[in-house]
Amino acid sequence: MKILVVNGPNINMLGIREPEIYGSRTYSDLVAQITSEAAKLGVKVEFFQSNHEGAIVDKIQEAYGKVDGIIINPAAYTHTSIAIADAIKAVGIPAVEVHISDPDTREEFRRVSYVRPACIATIKGKGFDGYLEALRILAKR
Ligand code: CA2
Prior knowledge:
- There is one protein chain.
- This protein is an alpha/beta fold.
- It is built from five helices and five strands.
- It has a five-stranded parallel β-sheet with strand order 2-1-3-4-5, sandwiched between helices.
- Helix 3 packs parallel to helix 4.
- The chain is globular, with a radius of gyration of 14 Å.
- It binds ligand CA2.
């Protein structure tokens, strides 16, 4: 089983600022934590982080027929991107939306998620553990 883990804009900056919202661990720490959980579950993982909407759409399309599940934190594109939502629907790969913080309890503009209806589950507000939960959900399928 292979899972693609997609992270959107500024996730590569984790740990650098706003530790009160996103914690003090870095993107490399996140990759290490998911890699370790995946090994325990016997799942292969591929990581992709981009600050560009089109690159994320391209990556999701490339996953068609090659990947069994997608974990996606679209970051700010969550609240704006119909293109990413459409790409998830187009490939038909089960996807889990993950957010480190809980966007529904923050500013009004973070309360909409275009991606949510395209996903089988949403995990929010659980920090990095949310990605591990998403991995377990997809591994069980
Ligand atoms: O809580 C999440 O995981 C978010 O997807 C993170 C996004 C935000 O736009 C979403 O509303 C919720 C932000 C990604 C990281 O942004 C940083 C900001 C400052 C310092 C480091 C990262």
